């Protein structure tokens, strides 16, 4: 299981396609149920180099929908 992503070079197109497909399926389930506790008790940290309120809030909303706490910085 991948725990940290530092560079994108190791990912193949096939791997990314599989991840995106899984993500679409998960998104449908989470939205249908109004949320999930999948990440309850976990801390998700985000770091944005460029200020983007819309992007930051989108990530925070997704994190909250999955039940995690967020540590965010710009």
Describe what this molecule looks like in 3D.
The chain has helices at residues 13-33, 53-65, and strands spanning 43-47, 69-73. The relative contact order is 0.16. The longest helix is centred in the N-terminal third of the chain and has 21 residues, at 13-33. The chain has a two-stranded parallel ribbon with strand order 1-2. By secondary structure, the protein is an alpha+beta fold.
Number of helical segments?
2
General shape: globular
Query: How helix-rich are the residues, as a percent range?
Result: 40-55%
Mean pLDDT: 84
Distance from N terminus to C terminus (CA atoms, Å) equals 28 Å
Radius of gyration: 14 Å
Low-confidence stretches: none
Proportion of residues in extended strands:
5-15%
Q: What summary fits the major beta sheet?
A: 2 strands, parallel
Q: How many β-strand runs?
A: 2
Give me the secondary-structure category.
alpha+beta
Q: What letter string, H or E per element, gives the SSE order? A: HEHE
Strand order of the largest sheet: 1-2
Concise structural overview:
The protein starts with 12 loop residues before the first helix and ends with a strand.
Can you lay out the helices and strands and say which pair or pack?
Elements: H1 13-33, E1 43-47, H2 53-65, E2 69-73
Parallel strand pairs: 1-2
């Amino acid at each position: 299981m991948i725990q940290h992503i530092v560079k994108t070079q190791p990912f193949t197109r096939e791997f990314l396609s599989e991840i995106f497909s899984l993500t679409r399926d998960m998104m449908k389930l989470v939205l249908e149920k109004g949320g999930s506790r999948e990440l309850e008790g976990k801390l998700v940290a985000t770091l944005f180099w460029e200020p983007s309120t819309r992007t930051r809030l989108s990530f925070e909303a997704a994190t909250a929908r999955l039940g995690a706490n967020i540590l965010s910085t710009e």
